Amino acid sequence: MNIRVQDEYKVKDADMNKPGFTKGEIEFIVRDRLGNVVRRWSEPNIVKIYAKEILSHRLPSSEVWDPNANSGVGGWVASGIDPTEEFSARYIVFGASFDDQGLPLDQNDTRYYIIDPVTGSYVPIKLGPGADYEGSLINAIPLLEPLRPLKRVETIGYQSTYQPAGTPLLQSDVRALNNIVTLETTLLLDEYNGFGTTSSDYFTITEVALIGGKKFDAIGACDCTPRQLFLEGPSSSSGPLQCIASGSDVISIDPSETNVDLIKEGDSIKIVGTSDTAGQESISQVTPYYLVLQKSVGGRDITLDRTPVTSSNVPITGAIGVYRDTLRIFSHRILSAPVKKSADFEITVRWSIIFS
Description:
356 residues, mainly beta, 2 domains, 6-stranded antiparallel β-barrel, globular
């Protein structure tokens, strides 16, 4: 790890001005074993268009006003919307540059970096504003607590900017608005130090993402990716929800299933085989992820955004398995230069998002 004392710099990114992005930054603070700051830098924070779907689920209230409730006096009644905690930014997850044998690749990894033909130096690939890589990371570090934990957001704070209090350009008075949210976590000395114990096994962290999802107190030795971890089946079993595909954009929950409201309108789901685990895909598809456009409470029919088909474009029929996808990425960033984690340094990752 190349360390320069108090090495601070800003990375410019033209993509910050494109539609679909909001401004902010990710700050990294590297400390040695004595707690001294040996390096500090920041990179532009790109919030995807996909995050607007998350925010849209957080905005509605669980209740609406019914003027006819309470014998015509009016009152708050259930809206039918559940702004659950899984739509809140709760975790910071990491990807790394390593091959099938777990050996670090550093910048020699074409999934992350390419050679700039002008400068001849490595530059990160460009991420689009949509849900690339099926809404997940390019090469997530498998989670295995305690050495490779699911990092929870440990600190949340707010920062203010000053906006005109009256008519812009006509009045000089201003007011402070808490429109910058900061979320941070710290990679401890003994975390993310690789699959083994030698220096060659240390992870070269290349990507970082701020995500929402269902709450986990502990995940244990799952040795799974965040994408797999946040797939949810019925509570009565560890497998997928059993459904029936009709060859159209409507699938039905099998009559044997009792948890018919596991899938809700607006959810993303993953279609797999009837006995597949979260990490398996026995049905060959271009992408196994679909959006639920319509699902009534207590109903068994689920209308999807498209007809499920195989990779050969043949409509899927018969028994299938369905997982509810609770992983929701607010922001995804490839680092301008990979960071080598080791047992000698802890790294604080701080997100700042400006809601303008």
